[in-house]
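Could someone model glutamic acid with this protein?
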Amino acid sequence: MAAETGADNQALEEKHDVLKSTQTVIHKALEKLGYPEEVYELLKEPIRMLTVKIPVRMDDGSVKIFTGYRAQHNDAVGPTKGGIRFHPNVTEKEVKALSIWMTLKCGIVNLPYGGGKGGIICDPREMSFRELEALSRGYVRAISQIVGPTKDIPAPDVFTNSQIMAWMMDEYSRLRENDAPGFITGKPLVLGGSHGRESATAKGVTICIREAAKKRGINLEGARVVVQGFGNAGSFLSKFMHDAGAKVIGISDAYGALYDPNGLDIDYLLDRRDSFGTVTKLFDNTISNKELLELDCDILVPAAIENQITEENAHNIRAKIVVEAANGPTTLEATQILTDRGILLVPDVLASAGGVTVSYFEWVQNNQGYYWTEEEIDEKLEKVLVHSFESVYNTSETRRVDMRLAAYMVGVRKSAEASRFRGWI
Ligand code: GLU
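Reply:
Sure, complex below.
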């Protein structure tokens, strides 16, 4: 049964405070853009943060009270948007930072949204299907007043999937007494989901890798790629890289990593992974996640969790390009070290924006009641991501700032502008 690990989470979060580091870069970005201090005061924290308690009757008859959060960073541009994660390490600060990152993603790919994010402290790997359904429905009832298709639109994130989105959409529709597919994205196709949503984050990362490789003169055919994490983003990405002719020489999950200098059999690993992306338990000759990150390779993709590349290991990273598929995998100190070492870092808020882009397409389809083909989705996603990569890369070159600061500058501008036009600041 899931345990609340709030105290452990506090300790973790004090070491690498993701909210503080995000605020540092937001401050710098606004300064570079010439905005006065009050714009920072508005944008440094979510405008709304709801903490809820969700009682769930567990399979053994006991009642367990879960803690959940929903943060809405800024709704000047439009409704807020962002996923819900189910994870034992969820904290209030992390959810706040994640909601700010969603504002940046939506700004970079130019969607009519601000950022939002939700999380529940739980371990879905230790919960039954029935318990998960009760938790998902309970969470929607608890936050229902502040969410909705024109207020705040949730989506999947770490350890949540289309089934969970379906339960949540059903609960919301029942509460409102009408069918509300536009309440949430990442739904199954039959419930108004979009073609291409499941693989969208990985597709966006793939486009960023391709564009970054062009800038560095690396041929993807035969390039050595290391992917940390084998969840939604990591698994699809490994497949796309493999199909593009690259050699995926390392992958990992929460329990260890696999390495083969000649390239791993990705199709076999995909076939054997469980729904949480666990696969390394099936092998004896594993390496550690630390060793994986320091492998000699061309492209490194952290696609797992936060704070993986820090000042402790940034000097040992041997990749030429680092593309962040996870949210917040590299600390600010490590960003500086990688940039100084000439490694091209494609930041999370750009590289992982493919997911929310196709979520937006899903919401548009729900609103108009007319659905697009996979080809149409792919074509639209390609255009958006190529354009976004170029604008961040060009900002980085012309303003002589690292790619993360450039991405923040591109990403924060829209919310700042919109807040001004509305007369808030
Ligand atoms: N959870 C994803 C992210 O962090 C997707 C959010 C969405 O589709 O709204 O970008």
